[in-house]
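Our preliminary data section would be incomplete without showing what the modeling component actually yields. Below, a chain of 104 amino acids is followed by its predicted structure, encoded as tokens that our downstream tools consume directly.
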Amino acid sequence: MTNKDFDGTLDQNDARFSKPYLFEADPTEDARRALVSEINEHPTGRVALEAKHGQVWDTIELQRDYTVEGFCAPFVSITRKADGQRGTLMFQHAPRFYFDFSPH
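Predicted structure:
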């Protein structure tokens, strides 16, 4: 069945819906949660982030310079538009700034 064939109703007897989805545990979750708490407990302004991490981007600047591939707080997976370099940035929630570019 394709998406265009789907009429919006779910048949609970359909084998595709008979087993619960199982997700693997994320071994990085505890460490990421700790980083998120640390970063966002005392959010830093742009000037302080630049002093500590170098270049900093706000959301508009991030969209200008990178293609976002995915989020897994406090990290965002990105591809730099200028040269195709893939990597990650860290981010804080409010004020939202992206920083600490790490190439892959």
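The chain has a mean pLDDT of 87. The chain is about 25% helix and 30% strand. Preliminary results of this kind motivate Aim 1 of the renewal.
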